[in-house]
Amino acid sequence: MNRELLALFVHDVKNQLGVLEAELSLLEAAPDRPRAHRAHQHCAQLRQRLIAYLTLYGSADKHLYAQCADESPQEFLNKLLRVDSRPDGAPLRIAQPLMAPPFWYFDARLVLLAMEAALHNAWRFARSDVCLDARAVNGFLVLSVEDDGGGLGCADPSAQSSTGLGMELCAAVARAHQLSDRPGRVRLTGRPQGTGTRFEIWLP
User: Fold this and answer.
1) pLDDT, position 163
2) Which residues have CB under 8 Å from 96's CB, separation 6+?
3) Rounded CA gap, 141 and 152, in Å?
């Protein structure tokens, strides 16, 4: 694990623990169901980040290698709809019509880590909509997560999507998927509709 990624991890976890400590303090003073849900969500996000870090750290030479298998992108998205740390009432849908190819070769375990990181980020900043999509583009499977939050250029930093450890993890997962001279990659852009953020992971 390189120093830069380790520093991102420590900083990210420190911030998450600070938020969680504040939420638990408020909850102790005045028990409240919405506050309890927020605290639970932050616990789930922190657990996911720890799993992601251990996955990266546990690779023998500090590089990830994808163990690809024949997967259905549509079934993969359906699995994301059932993520166990999804907050109650969180908006989440699959784009319609879904133009996903019937199958693709990728490491579902690794890609699930990346997409869950993107989902947790989208849930944090979305106003009313989070959308999953999958499509084939120029020989790549493109899996995406869109939210309708403030977006990357929002003047309020608290309403902007994070680009810390989560993006580093997603980039490592994408690079682990390489076909000939075509490595996977990630993109984080504004939504075509205007406000909001679009995360994409491109798998060859």
Assistant:
1) 45
2) none
3) 24
Per the CB < 8 A criterion, the answer to whether 81 and 112 are in contact is no
Q: How far is CA 191 from the centre of its chain?
A: 16
Which CATH code for domain 3-203? 3.30.565.10
The rounded distance, in Å, linking the Cα atoms of 183 and 118 is 20
Q: Which bin fits 139, alpha (ψ -120 to 50), beta or left (φ > 0)?
A: left
Q: Which amino acid is at 131?
A: C
Q: Could you give the CA distance from residue 44 to residue 80 in angstroms, rounded to a whole number? A: 15
pLDDT in tens, 10-32: 666 776 677 778 778 888 888 88
Q: Which residues contact 112 (CB under 8 A, 6 or more apart)?
A: 76, 79, 80
**pTM attached to this predicted model:** 0.74
Residues in the chain: 204
Taking only Cα atoms into account, the Rg of the chain, rounded to an integer number of angstroms, comes to 17
**157 has pLDDT over 70:** no
